[in-house]
Structure formats: C-alpha cells, structure tokens
Amino acid sequence: MDVLTDVLNTLELKGWLSARRELAPPWRYQFVASQDMIFHLLGSFGGGYLTLKGDPTPLRIEDGAVLLFPFGHAHSIGDKLTSPLTQVLHVDYDSQKHYQSFPETSEEIERAVLCGAFHLGHPGAFTLLHSLPNVIHIPVEQGRTVPGFTEIVQLIAREAAAPRLGTEVMLRRFTELLFIHIIRVWVEQQAGASRGWLAALRDPAISKALGLIHQSAERGWKVEELAAAVGLSRAVFSARFTRLVGEPPIKYLTRWRMHKATRLLKNNVKVEMIAELLGYESEVAFHKAFKREVGMPPAKYRKFGETFSTT
Fold first, then answer.
1. pLDDT of 58-103, one tens digit each?
2. What is the pLDDT of residues 219-229, one digit of tens each?
3. Deepest in the core among 58, 170, 220, 269, taking most CB within 10 A?
4. ∠ CA 269-270-272, rounded to 5°
5. 297 preceded by cis ω (within 30°)?
6. Domain 198-304 - what CATH class?
C-alpha cells in the first residue's frame, strides 16, 4: 500500500484561493497568523524577501517561487526589507467566500502574487505534518524538475487571471493538487533524512510494516507478526520502527485505528459497526480503547465533533 496516499486521503484537504495582489514596487505585505496553512504563488516581480515572525534571518525569494506556511505562521513579503507596509492581510480558509478577481492588464497579472489557504479536516492525523518546517520554499528552478509541478501552478494562474463558468470549482481542485505537489517536492528535498516519517517510508522493512498496518488496521497485529512479515527479528524491528516513526508499532496501530474511528463517527457509522470494522472483539472493548486514547467516549466525541489529534 502507498502509505503516503493513504494518509493524505485522511486529511480531508480543502484548498481555497483568496485573491491576487499586485507587486508594484515599493511593496510589502504583512500576513497575520492563520489557523490554516497559507500559500503564495509569486509572479514576475524582480525578487524580494520573506521575513518569518520569530526568525531574524530574511529569506531571498525570486520570480515564480512557491511558498507554503504549514502552520500559518505570521510573515511578510516585500521587494525590499525597508519597503513601506502596503497592507496587512488575513488569509483563512472560508468555504463561503468567493475568489476576488480584478480587471488587470497582462503585465499586472504577471507581476502579482496569488494567495490562498489549505484547510485540513484532521490536521493531527498525519505525523509527517508535525515534521514540516515553518515555511516550505520551492524556487521556480526546482519546481521545473518535478513532473507536473510547473503545469499545476500555471493552470492556477491562468484560471485566476480569466475567471469563467466553474472557476471557483476549478481553483479549489487545482489548489488541492498543488498541496500534494508541494508535499511531494518537500519529501524529495529530504532525501538525506536519517529519522522520522520520511526515513521510515524509505526504509524497505518499516515502510512495508506501515503498509500492512494501514492496509489491515482491523487485524490484531503483534510485534512478532509484523517483524516476521518484513524479515526482521522482533527486537531489531521494534527498535528500528520506534526510532524512525517515533513510537512503538502497536502504539502506532492503535492511534491509526482511533483516527479511522473518529472519521467513521463523524460519518454517523454505528459504534457497533466501527468496533467490528476496526477488529475489536466487542463494542465494549472498542469503547474502552477509544476513551483511553481520545479522552472521551465515542458518543461524546460524535456529539461535540471534536477533532482528534494524534500529537
């Protein structure tokens, strides 16, 4: 099983393009902290600087760069560090708000920045997200080396520049694809990672074990069974899994089961059926496990709709 695909599917990702802002010098936009991920697609503006709140070192950014702020950190971008403030902006996902288009010349469109947000229905469900940096910067040259990346950026820019029937839907779908592309590029940037989720996915044995867990979460896996399935001794497998993933195999299995359970509860599946689907011997056993891991009974979780976090 492609574990990355499986966990990306569980995020319930929603993309949204907010607006286009012209980058006519001198300019500097300040973005306040957001509860969602923020992204920018930069046009041809002659280069500038990104300043992340709490980081004293500005980052040089060039034409065509893509920026993602996984935790919605406050930041500012401008043509120069000393440029006067143009505007303070709030970028939060809003499913009811429409994309704001402006009548502009082709030159103005090319030197603009497109701003948007990604909202995750289950932000705590994917341990990879916890390891993301405060900002992911993808220079245009790097984007060109990844099949499809430049094309999706161009599709978004083209659709945003000339809204037509169905533009709102097109932009939402394109931005969701953009998120996956950005994660792909970032994963490839971390080729030398020695530990964490990325290293786990690159380790043949641990990656296979993760695939087994995701494919058959309802199975009552034992550590020795997973170890045997990937050709390692119990001790070696347990130590390597814990070091790379950050928690023991059975703990990971339980947390993944609970995440699946929260989604099923959200979709109004009966508790008895959830217990059966996740491999618990009885509804009572599932109820105890859920309360122990999540901190509340399934019925209370369903009623209040709290987002389960695996942090």
1. 999 999 999 999 999 999 999 999 999 999 999 888 777 766 655 5
2. 989 999 999 99
3. 170
4. 130
5. no
6. mainly alpha
